[in-house]
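2024-03-11 09:14:02 INFO worker-7 job=invfold-0412 stage=load source=structure_tokens
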């Protein structure tokens, strides 16, 4: 009778413990990285009331008879099953898509392991979790990992110093080199220029005589719109630069921290250029041509393909052809034109057909002095038909007709009209690289991301892409042997085995998924079902105590 009473008490204790475990699971249903637990029972010791005996020829065997004293807690097991992920949008949040734990170190040097990947960077540039403990892995120096082996180093984000530099743009516009610089070593000079021209200002009022330009500052002075007076004559690029700088300071109340800007453009006309020509966006040059006053050979004529840089000018004194020069099977043409730069002298334009001319004929370019490398933009064109080509080669394919070898006084060559457009309105011109230099910290980075292998990568306006470190994982032979330490941490135990370090995604570990967190693996449906069963078990054990008490009461009442 007393045994039943103690069995009920033992049952109440175990079921209460199980309810404690269920309650903790339900309380952590929304705790990131939480792993649920389960409580298991076992029976207690027994009192033997009859021993077993072996059977004989005259009597059968007897089984033992024992009476138990209730149940006791067997274990509280960790359930390490993978849970789902939730997207957070925070680039420093990480989840592990498989086995493995993040490593963290507290101020006393103790190492803990966790699945909760809410990470941050402290004011000293160290990677920490939400408890302020250091995340461990492999560090980096000058944008490169210190070692290819995973380890237990505190991840300290470092950025190399930056040398002072001037803002600058070097490019080409309409084939001419363009350079824009600032004289201040500061990122305030990293601005964008747009250049246009008009007879009116942006408010619709006209430019008055002598007024060169208007400047409009946009986006906190990072975009500078320059509107040139279309008919104003700028004698030099230096004059243009000064006018822009003066107007910038007027707009900014007399001061501008971006410095003095200097525009340099090769090929600026010696006589100056108007605002319209400076801001024009297209090359308005026209190619040269030939006015023919004498008939050429049948099937040969000047083509329309004169270059925009054609310099020939004056009488075309002769046009001649020669065969087998410079190579067998080719016809070479030579056009002689007066040289306007040297009166009384001539310049030759020379070109050759290919080894074969198709039925549609061919167009060949004749370059000045026959040098297509030195005079790539100074050529004229001739069209030649297949019939004319065959005639030049002769009936035997080897002997040209000497009577048709040359023609004198063909016509007049007209030079190309050079472009007056400088092309500064063609696009937006952006200066880059300007910095005052000095020490750099993680705050100078424009962004940080974490790759699937745990590598932290930052973007720097000067250094570019930088490797900042790598988060390494720890794995265990028996993860269920870890001890729960609070704050979503686990600790190594004798039965978990020693930590094995790995690069995420290697040696059986999961990859890193950034901007995401692993949710709790608590199954509410299972927990509520277990809670009901536990409640009923507790209720049944309490009835054992109640009934045992009633029986004892009847026993006591026998003396009445």
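2024-03-11 09:14:09 INFO worker-7 stage=emit residues=560
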């Amino acid at each position: 009778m007393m045994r039943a009473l103690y069995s009920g008490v033992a049952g109440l204790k175990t079921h209460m413990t199980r309810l404690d475990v269920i309650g903790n699971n339900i309380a952590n249903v929304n705790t990131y990285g939480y792993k649920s637990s389960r409580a298991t029972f076992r029976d207690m010791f027994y009192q033997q009331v009859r021993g077993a005996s072996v059977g004989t020829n005259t009597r059968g065997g007897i089984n033992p008879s024992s009476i138990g004293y209730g149940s006791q807690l067997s274990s509280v097991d960790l359930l390490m099953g993978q849970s789902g992920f939730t997207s957070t949008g925070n680039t420093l949040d990480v989840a592990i898509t498989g086995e493995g734990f993040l490593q963290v170190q507290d101020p006393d040097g103790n190492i803990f392991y966790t699945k909760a990947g809410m990470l941050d960077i402290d004011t000293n540039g160290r990677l920490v979790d939400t408890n302020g403990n250091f995340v461990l892995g492999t560090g980096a120096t000058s944008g490169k990992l210190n070692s290819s082996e995973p380890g237990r180093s505190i991840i300290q984000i470092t950025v190399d110093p930056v040398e002072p530099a001037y803002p600058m743009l070097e490019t080409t516009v309409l084939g001419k080199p363009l350079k824009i610089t600032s004289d201040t070593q500061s990122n305030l000079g990293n601005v964008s220029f747009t250049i246009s021209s008009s007879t009116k200002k942006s408010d619709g009022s006209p430019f008055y005589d002598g007024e060169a330009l208007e400047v409009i500052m946009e986006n906190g002075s990072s975009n500078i719109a320059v509107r040139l007076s279309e008919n104003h004559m700028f004698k030099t690029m230096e004059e243009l630069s000064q006018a822009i700088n003066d107007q910038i300071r007027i707009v900014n109340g007399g001061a501008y921290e971006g410095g003095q800007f200097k525009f340099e453009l090769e090929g600026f006309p010696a006589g100056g250029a108007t605002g319209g020509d400076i801001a024009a966006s297209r090359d308005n040059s026209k190619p040269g041509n030939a006015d023919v006053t004498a008939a050429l050979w049948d099937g040969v004529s000047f083509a329309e393909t004169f270059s925009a840089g054609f310099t020939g000018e004056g009488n075309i004194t002769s046009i001649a052809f020669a065969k087998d020069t410079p190579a067998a099977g080719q016809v070479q043409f030579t056009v002689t034109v007066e040289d306007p730069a040297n009166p009384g002298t001539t310049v030759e334009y020379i070109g050759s057909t290919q080894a074969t001319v198709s039925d549609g004929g061919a167009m060949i370019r004749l370059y000045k002095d026959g040098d297509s490398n030195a005079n790539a933009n100074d050529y004229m064109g001739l069209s030649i038909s297949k019939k004319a080509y065959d005639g030049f080669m002769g009936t035997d394919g080897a002997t040209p007709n000497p009577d048709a070898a040359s023609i004198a006084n063909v016509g007049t060559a007209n030079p190309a009209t050079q472009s007056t457009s400088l092309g500064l309105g063609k696009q937006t011109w952006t200066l880059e690289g300007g910095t005052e230099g000095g020490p750099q910290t993680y705050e100078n980075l424009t962004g940080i991301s974490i790759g699937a292998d745990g590598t932290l990568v930052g973007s720097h306006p000067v250094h570019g892409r930088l490797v900042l470190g790598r988060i390494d994982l720890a794995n265990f032979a028996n993860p269920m042997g870890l001890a729960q330490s609070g704050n979503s941490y686990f600790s190594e135990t004798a039965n978990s085995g020693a930590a094995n370090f790995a690069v995420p995604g290697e040696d059986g570990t999961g990859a890193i998924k950034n901007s995401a967190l692993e949710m709790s693996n608590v199954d509410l449906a299972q927990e509520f079902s277990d809670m009901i069963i536990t409640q009923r078990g507790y209720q049944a054990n309490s009835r054992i105590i109640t009934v045992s008490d009633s029986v004892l009461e009847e026993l006591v009442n026998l003396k009445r």
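2024-03-11 09:14:09 INFO worker-7 stage=report msg="The two ends are 21 Å apart (CA to CA)."
2024-03-11 09:14:10 INFO worker-7 job finished
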